Amino acid sequence: MLRTGALIVAALILGCLLSDCSRRRAQTARHPAPDFALKDADGKVVHLSDYKGKVVLLDFWATWCGPCKIEIPWFIDFQRKYQDKGFVVLGVSMDDEGWQIVKPFLTNLKVNYRVVLGTDQTAQAYGGVDALPTTFLIDRDNKIAAVHVGLANRKDFQHDIEELLQGSVNASAGFGVPALFAGAR
């Protein structure tokens, strides 16, 4: 009986991983993405505002996060495919161990986009990032257009990115900004 219960739980988890288990939060209006000053692997300070005019995929992740390891190769592909169209991926590692663990991880996966070390303050500025991965899609005007919490569907990311790159006002219509950005919480 215990073995059957464990198999059911495992099947549910696997089903969640294979389907779209991310929560996309309802949007009423786009709100500015909070700026930050965080250091990259070379010790250079990176500001989100440095990327104004580009579509940004801002990914909060960690090396120990299983769903993050699934999404990161997608983000590598998106960076390669869309970088010439005004798109950039920016990773925010939430690893407590810092660069000692993050640098080898990035090298092993051949990550082709910039990664910074996040802080609790940065996570709070983005609505209290309490699950990893949490990924924000930010439009060219530096406004949050969509939020994916948990493992998302690659096709959803690709659709949202392409809509934002085309400058569609309705990108992610009906999805996106957490309630706190709309003034409710």
Architecture overview:
This protein is an alpha/beta fold. The protein has one domain: 3-Layer(aba) Sandwich (Glutaredoxin). Helices cover 34% and strands 19% of the residues. It has helices at 2-18, 66-82, 99-109, 120-125, 154-165, and strands spanning 37-39, 45-47, 55-61, 87-93, 114-117, 134-138, 144-149. A hairpin with a 5-residue loop joins β6 (134-138) and β7. 33% of the residues are buried. Mean pLDDT is 82; it is low at 2-28 and 169-185.
List the SSEs and their pairings:
Blueprint lengths: L1 H17 L18 E3 L5 E3 L7 E7 L4 H17 L4 E7 L5 H11 L4 E4 L2 H6 L8 E5 L5 E6 L4 H12 L20
Parallel strand pairs: 3-4, 4-5
Antiparallel strand pairs: 1-2, 3-6, 6-7
Short précis:
This protein has 185 residues and is of the alpha/beta class.
Strand numbers in spatial order across the main sheet = 5-4-3-6-7
Order of helices and strands: HEEEHEHEHEEH
User: Alpha-carbon distance between the termini?
Assistant: 42 Å
Which blocks of ≥5 consecutive residues have pLDDT under 50? 2-28, 169-185
What best-fitting shape do the alpha-carbon axes yield? globular
State the fourth-level CATH superfamily.
Glutaredoxin
| Fraction of residues in β-strands | 15-25%
Question: Using DSSP, what is the number of strands?
Answer: 7
Features:
185 residues; Glutaredoxin; alpha/beta; five-stranded mixed β-sheet; two-stranded antiparallel ribbon; 5 helices; single chain; disordered N terminus; disordered C terminus; 19% strand; 7 strands; globular
